[in-house]
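User: I'm curious whether this sequence folds into something compact or stays loose and floppy. Could you predict its structure so I can see for myself?
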Amino acid sequence: MNNSLHINNKHKFGYDFDSLCSVYPGLSKFVFTNQYKTRTIDFANPKAVKALNSALLFKYYGMKYWDFPDENLCPPIPGRVDYIHYLKDLMDSYEVSENIKVLDIGTGASCVYPILGNAEYNWQFVGTDIDNTSLQFAQEILDKNSLNDAVSLRFQKDSKYILKYILNEDERFSASMCNPPFYTSEKEAIKATARKLRGLNKPEGNLVRNFSGKYNELWYKGGEKAFLHNYLYESSLFKNQFIWFSSLVSRKELIRGLKVSLKKLDVKTVKVIKMESGNKLSRIVAWSFQI
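Assistant: Here's the prediction. I'll summarize afterward.
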């Protein structure tokens, strides 16, 4: 049970492994009963984590196919769908509720936010990425699940930019969303993985991330802070094309600086939404130049 998840999150009360294994048999070999007589998986095993999240997508979100290379980031579905639910609440509270179109920045090989947003609320999406190979795997997911009418993908040709080169002048979006790269370098990411493995009482020998992740998914020059401030600045250049901009923010200490920057950019509204998943506390920062 995870009472910290959004009230509309289907995974709030834990996992029914029998039901999940019935729709996704590949999960069965990873399920075991632990010392507390609870059925579970080894969350330090990336293959087990990927199988569990695949099963969740098959059972609850209508997926028939969801696959990508093991080195790509495997997103935890309960946490990812929480972002969708909180973004829905935000848009509803400001009466942004019809013909929702969302820009997913850094959609990755898993294409997870478009999948979840379309399944839960029938939103339309444009997903972007700086990695063409990831987009090819995402496109295969869309093709095999008949989602091409709901989701389109765009390649960001210049990794220095987030919105520039992606948007057409005449298009409008209800919102943007983003899970920014967290680390400043590969070295920092490896150190964090070692700490996480120690917390799971696992050997650090091969430093396998339990959710995997390629370089562009995990780190950015200057880290999360630099990415977010670039994103904020670029949003001011396209302020009339979005009702809301938003991003996950992992580090609480960044919030004050983001608010200061947004005030300088003359935004009308800033919202900070707390989002919990298990022991992890994150935040969604959302801003609007229009509302």
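Summary: Residues 204-219 have pLDDT under 50 and may be disordered. Residues 77-93 form the longest helix (17 residues).
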